[in-house]
Amino acid sequence: MRKLILSVLSLLLAANISFAARIPSDLQNYVGNTFPKTDFRFDGVIILSDSTLYLPLFPAKPLEVEKIEIKSTIPANKKLSEKPDIVIFNNNYVLLKVINEKNGKKTVISPTNIPDEVRNGLLPQDMLVPRGLIIPETLKGIVGNLDISLSENTDLRIEVPQNKNNKVSTSVTPLPQLKNKTFYIATGYSKNIQVVNAESKSPEYALSQSHVPNCMKSYNNKFLLVTSFSSNSLNVISLADEKVIKEIMFATRPDEILLDKEKNIAYVSSPEDSSIYIVNLETMTLSKQIKINGMCERLTLSNDGTKIFYVDKKTNEIWAIELDNNYLLKDIGKFPNVSKIAFNNNKLYITSRTKNHLAIVDYETNGLIAEIEITEKPIDMLAYENNLFILGASSNVIQVIDTNTDEITDSIYLNTNGFSTNITPIDNTNLAIVSDSRASIYCILDMTKKQIIKANPIEVPIRTIVVTDKINKIK
């Protein structure tokens, strides 16, 4: 009984801490009006577009005010746009600017006369303290239970061997849509996540991990969510400062990640636990556990975010979860050796690795509409508008299905002489990256033109790739 009470208390405390780090929306709007691209990170840290950091102090007694205004600043009489060292608002919230010193350390100003709002404020207690931060002795009261020393050695960045032959060019000519893009690549055998500039074929550096990464997804161009093959945690990496800023623990190993960016949530599968968990991406916390049948794999989220499809790896049974219908489970039926599931025009498309066929099922009736012979070893599939792109690993071909007629309309040959593995869409474009686990090359697929428009060399094999915009690093 005592252990149960302690567990409940721990959960309540964790919930309170997570809530406490939420900066009031009216204060966010005030700062955002001056600095439009400000990142209010879920742990409380405020990052301006030029990488200037502010640490918020939460008041013991916040004041309700009709309109947010600046009460005072240090130096005095400064506008927010001038980035003063201390900003005190009329609701008692305080912003402390992080000051970079010449020796690489960071600190905040310690005024001679410390305002009460600063003296009585408290840093968010789940905040990842910027590396090298030193709080002046006169401000130790704002630290609370934060262990600042833990932040000293959390940098993930490590150097990688570079090509010593200066005569060999490492640059590539990217498409205009890939300029100022960064690739984060998991190889499937290395613990390091390779970081490659889209204009190069060589990794610039790597991000060290404790385990070999399995699934990776990017959120909001700011965070990288990573599961690993032998870890019970989901790591949240801040791409601005390249640190693990949150470790979300599960009872069993998390596996696949699906993102619903409209709802700011992630679905994370845990096959051993027969569960799919919902992660609130605004707070990076677990918010719900969905119990399912069997051991889930091959997860697919419908475009409208109302359904998840998966296959039970033990029985080959395909299930649908109706997310907007109290998580109702619907049995679709058994299909052999499922390699991928797609959903388009209210129809399920299911590929089989061994039978080299595509089954088409009407979602409402569960009736089999058709079976189509397709390329050998169909390994991945991507729905885009009214087309379905099916990647065949054996012959390195992409077959295109028109989901209005359910007929093969195009065959796109890659000519890589490798073993194709994935089709990964590039956000906010009509392009996808076709990666290969053997050939030192990746192809760019234009899904509107239905053709390969670029093939570039790369020096690392790609098991999983995430494409983001380049972002300013916190120095």
Characterization of the model:
7% of the residues lie in helices and 43% in strands. It is globular. The two termini are 48 Å apart. A hairpin with a 4-residue loop joins strand 32 (397-402) and strand 33 (407-413). With 475 residues, it is mostly beta strands. The strands form 9 sheets. The chain has a 6-stranded antiparallel β-sheet with strand order 1-2-3-6-5-4, with no helix packed on it. Strands 10-13-12-11-38 form a 5-stranded antiparallel β-sheet, with no helix packed on it. The relative contact order is 0.09. The longest helix has 19 residues, at 2-20. It has 2 domains: 2-151, no CATH class; 157-469, Methylamine Dehydrogenase, Chain H.
> Helix count, per DSSP?
3
The strand count comes to 38
Structural domain count: 2
Low-confidence stretches: 1-20, 149-153
Strand proportion, as a percent range, falls in 35-45%
Gross morphology is globular
CATH topology of the largest domain, which one? Methylamine Dehydrogenase, Chain H
Say which CATH homologous superfamily of the largest domain is assigned: YVTN repeat-like/Quinoprotein amine dehydrogenase
